[in-house]
Amino acid sequence: MLNGNKENETSITRFILLGLGNNTELWPFLFLLFLVIYLVTIIGNLIIILLVANDQQLHTPMYFFLGNLSCLETFYSSTILPKMLSNLFTGDRTITVNGCLSQYYFFGLQKNNYYQPPFNRGPVYCTSQKEGCENIYKPLTSWT
């Protein structure tokens, strides 16, 4: 059965992406639409991160988590959209196997960070009695 003969083996090096169909007249419009959405998302999240990091009044647990979410959203948006934009711009509808696997890995990794359930027990971060306390496991585990 296994005699070491490798004459009849095919290796897969690329996948063909068929998501947007064959209507190439829409591709320039879709490219501009997705580019604007991507840029607004990235710029908005970076503004939130910079504001939370630089303003001393925003150093509270709520804004800490908001900055954490904005950072994850930036990575989440940058996983798939750049490849889709390059496919729309060049007309090349293929992706390498390694590119597909890396997108799948990073997309799944970040998706798990978003929907990870909070912990009920564990160390907490308290700023004052008024503001309450937040569990510190959630932001720590979202980056692992």
UniProtKB/TrEMBL annotation:
Signal peptide extent: none
Annotated GO MF terms: G protein-coupled receptor activity; olfactory receptor activity
Superkingdom of origin: Eukaryota
GO CC, alphabetical: membrane
Gene3D superfamilies according to UniProt: Rhodopsin 7-helix transmembrane proteins (1.20.1070.10)
Record-linked Pfam families: 7tm_4
Occurrences of domain G-protein coupled receptors family 1 profile (ranges): 44-100
Principal location class: membrane
Nuclease recorded as keyword: no
Keywords: Membrane, Transducer, Transmembrane, Transmembrane helix
Transmembrane segments: 26-53
Membrane topology classification: Multi-pass membrane protein
InterPro entries on file: GPCR_Rhodpsn, GPCR_Rhodpsn_7TM, Olfact_rcpt
The protein, known as: G-protein coupled receptors family 1 profile domain-containing protein
Organism the protein comes from: Naja naja (Indian cobra)
